[in-house]
Amino acid sequence: MGILVFNYGEIVLVIFLCILVSTVNCIGANWGTQSTHPLPPSIVVKLLRDNGIQKVKLFDADSTTLNALGGSGIEVMVGIPNDMLYSLANSVEAAERWVEKNVSAHVSSNSVNIRYVAVGNEPFLSALNGTYLGTTYPALQNVQAALIKAGLANRVKVTIPLNADVYGSSTEQPSTGDFRQDIHDLMMQIVKFLSDNAAPFTVNIYPFISLYKDPHFPIDYAFFDGYSSPINDNGRIYNNVFDANYDTLVWALQKNGFGNLSIIVGEIGWPTDGDRNANAQYAQRFNQGLMSHISGGKGTPMRPGAVDAYLFSLIDEDAKSIQPGNFERHWGIFNYDGTPKYNLNLGSNSGGLIAASGIRYLPRRWCVMSPSASLDDTQVAPSVSYACSHADCSSLGYGTSCSNLDARGNISYAFNNYYQENDQLASACQFPNLSIVTTTDPSQGTCKFNIMIQSSRPSPQASTGFLGEPPMKLAVPFVFMLILNIM
What we know:
Blueprint: H1 8-21, E1 28-31, H2 41-50, E2 55-58, H3 63-69, E3 75-80, H4 85-89, H5 92-109, E4 113-119, H6 136-149, E5 157-159, E6 161-163, E7 167-169, E8 177-179, H7 184-196, E9 201-204, H8 207-213, E10 231-233, E11 236-238, H9 241-255, E12 263-268, H10 280-294, E13 308-311, E14 366-369, H11 380-390, H12 407-421, E15 435-438, H13 477-486
Parallel strand pairs: 1-2, 1-13, 2-3, 3-4, 4-5, 6-9, 9-12, 12-13
Antiparallel strand pairs: 7-8, 10-11, 14-15
């Protein structure tokens, strides 16, 4: 993969335009790479620059990604995965080696504009059952010590991206907010450490999740364009859940003596598929509403001024875990191939999102259910289950983009995703007496049968067909419903 080269004048121009378009900090984006066919990093960096996105948050410190960002002027937050926290917490030397390899080398040799190190990712989630409670803070301390030793502490700040579940309020009013009782003492240690080192508090806020978890959550409260029953908190008016959530954190910090600590919204966005409330219309409404809401530096009732935020996310990731929900693979403002999902004005791109360039696709062919195959065939259920457990069927289900498909369409969608994920290998469309390859696009309405992009990753090994593969994984909830529907 090639590395883009930029001259100093280009960098200054882009940054100047970023400041010129609004008084807020330029919007950032999360760049995740859990995809079976990820876009080349050089193409993604150009995509970022073409769309005026001047900040990017990564979930690791992949050298190929960082090399591509070299000389671009884009501010970078590099990530340390949770599974590395133990080793970094227990060894200052391990932290020094990590900083030297993943920060110092790229700053000095590749001119990567690294500004933050994200130590872990939502390590205190209740669902993690305390796994990282003992290692996150020591890892944070050791990484900070390593940055000091490397002479980078004034330039590169440490932070911990935390889920908004680390704080809460006893009422709907933000002013009753405080940190979660079971981790209160730990949060105070972390917050003091961040404050002492002029580092920000990073929080991920997801109004969509509020709607997803609570069917009675008022949908208009999740957006920014009007709520009929705003919350009055001692004269401060809240007509959207983002402001209320953000200010709950502000109150929690203020109550504990850290009211001036800077805040970064590490993740915020809306998915486009995989749930009845996840679609392009809602995503456009939310993300454009967010941009309009924070433009001009208005801020929130408790914290006026610029809001530092990173959209979640840049590009869809078809290999992400769907344990949180089928929507998890559909957060991108761009599709898997870098095409925009909807019109979105980020401030510097008044004409809307600009697609990635230089994309190469596999040939125009799809794997579908054979017209001669019967729905009553006993191989249908295990075949669909196998395909969906090895590929991405998260667009199938109630209220999704492919909910309009009939039984044969569901089967074809599953077969094609498996076929595309395996780079259109002939053996990947050999479901017994059930599948054929076609050159006629089977897409229907909102349901798109994708053709995968060409990837630089190693091609999958040809096999004798799905019956020769390891035992089927049946842990995908919607597969059961799908099988029931087609039998």
